[in-house]
Design goal:
Blueprint (H helix, E strand, L loop, with lengths): L1 H6 L5 H14 L2 E6 L2 E6 L10 E4 L3
Antiparallel strand pairs: 1-2, 2-3
Length: 59
């Protein structure tokens, strides 16, 4: 999550988290978790390999 926030410095951690939550609940993005790694992918594209935006929730 921190990596994603670093790429969006104009947004707070809470704003990024809320946006991901809303987009996921609306079905606009899909989240996949493997261990401590999350990958976000637009809902119109299937998960294949390691494509998509990936970040870690390990602190």
């Amino acid at each position: 999550m921190e990596e994603l926030c670093d790429e969006l410095p104009e947004l707070s951690w809470s704003q990024v988290f809320l946006a991901i939550d809303v987009l996921s609940r609306r079905g606009d993005i899909h989240l996949r978790r493997e261990a401590f790694i999350y990958t976000a992918r637009t809902a119109t594209l299937p998960f294949t390999g390691t494509e998509g935006r990936t970040w870690s929730d390990a602190s």
